[in-house]
Amino acid sequence: MSQSTRTTAAVRRDARAAAAAPDAGGSFTHRQIVTILAGLMVAMFLAALDQTVVATAIRTIADDLQGYDLQAWATTAFLITSTISTPLYGKLSDIYGRRPFYLFAILVFVVGSALCGLADSMYQLAAYRAVQGIGAGGLMSLALAIIGDIVPPRQRSRYQGYFMAVFGTSSVLGPVIGGFFAGHDSILGVDGWRWIFWINVPLGVLAFAAVWRVLHLPHERREHRIDWPGALALIAFLVPLLVVAEQGRTWGWASSGALTCYVIGAIGFVLFVLAERAYRDDALLPLRLFRNRSFAVSGIGSAVMGAGMFGGLLLLPQYLQIVQGSSATVAGLQMIPLVGGIMVGALSSGIAISKTGRYKVFPLVGIALMVVALLSLSFLVGADTSILVLMPFMVLLGLGLGFNFQPVILAVQNAVSPREMGVATSSVTFFRQMGGTIGTAAFLSILFTRLPQDIGDAVQETVRANPELAPQFQQLGAGSGDILDDTSFIQELPAALAEPFKVGFSNSIDLVFLIAAGVVAIGFFVFLFLPELALSDKSGIQARQGAAAGTATSDPDDPAEEATEAVGAAAPTSVPPPVGQPGDRPDAPR
Prior knowledge:
Layout: H1 3-20, H2 30-64, H3 71-96, H4 98-116, H5 122-150, H6 153-156, H7 160-182, E1 186-187, E2 190-191, H8 195-198, H9 200-214, H10 228-251, H11 256-279, H12 293-322, H13 328-334, H14 336-356, H15 361-380, H16 387-415, H17 421-465, H18 470-476, H19 495-527, H20 540-548, H21 559-569
């Protein structure tokens, strides 16, 4: 490459970076914000699409790999790595900047997706999903942190519609795409479901190129120690607990293997706390953040909500396919009422928060709606329940989820120091994912523990009414654990033989919905303690530039004053908010 060509390329690169930079006051024009959002939306679409695609098709994948009762490994492996990597992304991006880590997250996610399409067993799929999860841990949390950097809390809801459009589109398209691929035995000579993962590769390349081009945020690198001991201790804490949650039903909850996991997990937790105390401000999760009531309440509430949310969302598609007999594609379309509820809830709450500046009421109302929906589903779900009966409660569940998405993250970002935007945002996402990981493993464990018993009871009741069916049920092995390896045979059975299997599945899922409702209800009492702080009119970048210019009065090394500064940063500024589009100004961007 000639010197002139390199010079021209450098000039163009510098021009793109300058066009994306804020003005001297740290504000962005509406056009700049939308340009950055466009790049983030492609990456967020990638992550959101994968979740909905896999959730719809996991039953088909598990049946094809002869491991329906092992599907928890594929789900849990993804959640373990995404949960553990999330706080790392947040902390490192606060120190070194968001852009390199967001690009890294996209790259790893694409590599993991390509490997998932090559899996030949459920254990291989679980390993490759773990790789995919390392990338996924940064896609959503860093996008939320970047929005906090460029858009003030009071104006953030004006751009929320873009993100909800992406989420809604992926939630509708994901199940349809997943159902389409899963419904084909072979496409271009390979199993149809493998394309569910390979479709991420071209999307990932597009996302990488978009973020590379448009994401150029100002950042001042800070020298910090990297809390590797804390990261390792976090792994030692979480992984054993998740393993025993999955395998406890097989080992026995008081078996030697389970007790070993409990002990390792407890030691890991103690080591994690000690590491965080030793590293102080450099910690992966600084313990002093828990002195901030908004952070503490949001973290605990997010963990509880994550557990209950995943319990409900995970089982609905499986109920529709196994009990209702819907194909993967049809099951995805039948989930549209829930997706519509999420979009309406998120958009309406965002508009209301923008106008009133109040956000505490929405998590409380959202939890109440979710509890009503889950309780209703636990009583209504049955072998012969019409999907039309379930749709209103799916909408209700979606509304509840939508009311909880933005307000909780907004409360935390608004209450902490702007220097810790990344670690605070990723920590709340971490707590939600941690709750979801544990909830997924626990609910699936409960489901598969109860299934043989519930199916056996339903079969016995059917045999009492029709004794001539006994030999056929015995041949099928009804009530044994082996029958869970492949559930596709249920749709091929005569109605008289299929009925007790559907009844057994329905009864087991009823129990899980009921438990999920109880877990979510705990979140209501947690969010009662969420403070209602005034929303700031400064973005994260504006607040950091103000602190660098000397407007901050606290000692950054004093935890007590740091907490005071965090609350002060959440107060309204003395300068009236600008009129018009966020960031509009007479001078041109640099």
